[in-house]
Design a protein that fits this description.
This protein is α+β, with helices and mostly antiparallel strands. The chain contains 2 helices and 6 strands; from the N terminus they run αββαββββ. Helix content is 17%, strand content 42%. Strands 1-2-4-5-6-3 form a 6-stranded antiparallel beta sheet. The chain starts with 12 loop residues before the first helix and ends with a strand.
Length: 132
Amino acid sequence: MSDDAAAPPITFPLQGFLGMELTGDAPGAGIASISIGAEHLNPNGVVHGAVLFALVDTAMGKATMSVVDDGFYCASVELSLRFIRAAAAGHLVAEATVVKRGRNVVHLEARVHDGDERIIATSAGTFAILGG
């Protein structure tokens, strides 16, 4: 982003550290994105798997929070990530959707794609609903 004044607020330190942007307000959906920089790469010159994991986990957390009531929060219970292809430059977007919201858990799916809409990774996850 070229205009820092237009940047969405940072909501937690890792988001700022990775340069992650959270967007979208649709119920049951969450979007997290990053512009790939040298700080995201592993020694082989491609995006480190932990960066992709954080991107998906954050998008899923946003999607979960969109379907829980005020006074509640969520925590990751389980998340699987399948790496489809490597990414080394450009922009990555993780789009998560709620598959089913139960009383105590939320089941989700997500896909990470690059700027050319190529799938980089797919994911399934479960989040606990806590608090209240």
